[in-house]
């Protein structure tokens, strides 16, 4: 068997499956993502956040600093793809390129185009912020910015509502909470701006407006005391008047001054996207996007949302499950810390210090095939024992992991005892004895945390997906036979020392080489 060729086949077949993200909050783990506006296009969720960065200029060292926008997408709210930068302050004709003021954006689809709305500081003698538009035929771009901002709109935080009758509205803040109709071209006002009435006193910004069952929800960050809540009002018309109803999310318990959000329905469930300074607890101008589920009461009012670390979605048992993004935690004996305080994007760890302490992580999918082993990345100066359970701290124990003395991180494994769980369960990790730090837990073959250049071995992503070695061998043998011997083979031998590979079975003709032997050239 041509093992080198099989390596090429298996690597090519699985190459696109090697990019995975996580299902916990925050949802983007390699950069700051504030002011997340979520939109559903063609059955997929797209996220348009602003992009906090450490300021390269002295005047913004202690303030918000944003130079560009990225767009992300997901079809399960678990695995997020970064499609890269779509707009930068350097390629918008009317934006002052050293302003670092690309604040909260929005994106909508109408008339075969995607319209990306964003605020920024203009060039020249114009003051304050204005709102511009970039256009594309794809939700991920490339976007072409208009040469001038929208006339008559001065402010920040644009939001666009396309009503059920097709009429579009734009909302913004800065100098008051404002709104206006848009022309059908989506880049000009069709009415004079109006001030949104019916809102409480106090600082307000970041409007996000949506319609549900004939009611219009005007939602916004609101400083009730010292930091921002998320609040809302309801009305019968897109531009109000609105009746204030209360808060969707209370002030941050850690003192993050801002919050900014969007609310969207996806596959029958409503979600709240918002931000928090998870990766920057000492500086709340660097924020990260989160998601939590949102529910409505029978009268249409919104139930308050309690922010979680766990977030949304179902986690695969055969992936790294970061239990520090827990659903619930014991009152004592567990502490969550950064893995590396010098690089907080490395994530967090759970530090167990008291026997009986536990962490619960909900909605883990064990699939239809029983798992055989559980692994954990751990560190323990004195050693200890971790118990792995399902369905609660007093649920069924599926494994005990003996953790040796180790001052450095290492992966330890244990066999599953008894009947392995199937389907979706809550996962619990509890400390039986000792003191143990845990980075992640997962079952069976898991994606590696380092590539072949570091480990000297190549990944088997079939095994990581839960297939047995016998199934993998059978699949690869079938592919090999099809390629080399089957009726649709693409490999053809010529003589005793030559061969060619046909692309799509095109007609091939021989060519003569200098030594008199023949080779084959595809037309």
Quick description:
By secondary structure, this protein is mainly β.
Task: Give an account of the 3D structure.
Helix content is 7%, strand content 41%. With 523 residues, it is mostly beta strands. Strands 20, 21, 24, 26, 27 and 29 form a six-stranded mixed β-sheet that branches. A five-stranded antiparallel β-sheet has the order 22-23-30-25-28, with no helix packed on it. The chain has a four-stranded antiparallel β-sheet with strand order 1-2-3-4, with no helix packed on it. Strand 31 and strand 32 (498-501) form a beta hairpin. Mean pLDDT is 90; it is low at 1-21.
User: Which stretches are low in confidence, meaning pLDDT under 50 for 5 or more residues running?
Assistant: 1-21
Biggest sheet layout: 6 strands, mixed
Gross morphology is globular
Structure class: mainly beta
Gyration radius, in Å: 28 Å
Distance between the termini: 29 Å
Helix content: under 10%
Mean pLDDT, to the nearest integer, reads: 90
Number of helices in the DSSP assignment: 4
Count of extended strands:
34
What is the strand content?
Answer: 35-45%
Labels describing this entry:
single chain, 523 residues, mainly beta, 6-stranded mixed sheet, 5-stranded antiparallel sheet, 34 strands, 7% helix, disordered N terminus
SSE order and pairing:
Elements: H1 3-14, E1 34-41, E2 44-50, E3 68-74, E4 81-88, E5 106-110, E6 113-120, E7 130-136, E8 144-145, E9 156-162, E10 168-173, E11 178-182, E12 194-195, E13 208-212, E14 215-223, E15 228-235, E16 242-249, E17 262-266, E18 269-276, E19 288-294, E20 315-316, E21 328-329, E22 334-338, E23 348-352, E24 358-365, E25 373-380, E26 384-390, E27 396-403, E28 406-415, E29 424-434, E30 436-443, H2 452-455, H3 461-464, H4 469-484, E31 491-494, E32 498-501, E33 508-512, E34 518-522
Parallel strand pairs: 20-24
Antiparallel strand pairs: 1-2, 2-3, 3-4, 5-6, 6-7, 7-8, 9-10, 10-11, 11-12, 13-14, 14-15, 15-16, 17-18, 18-19, 21-24, 22-23, 23-30, 24-29, 25-28, 25-30, 26-27, 26-29, 31-32, 33-34
